[in-house]
Fold:
Amino acid sequence: MPQQPDDLDARFADVQSTIPGLSIMEHPAPAGAHRLEPRIPFRTTTFGLIVQLVSLVLAGYVIALLSIMAVFIGCSILFG
Structure:
């Protein structure tokens, strides 16, 4: 019975050597293939900022209403 390596990378390299086509380096992209550019993080439009602001305000109102209702329900239970 062969010794099993404890390292995950060594295990993957062992499996990779036994399965043809598993390595992405064996199949490079064809010449002229379109490469996707990485998205710039935190870049958004003015419309996106307005939508985020409105949804944040609405979420705040919902949380405030739910907490006020919880207080009223708690007071009605406690004080009848």
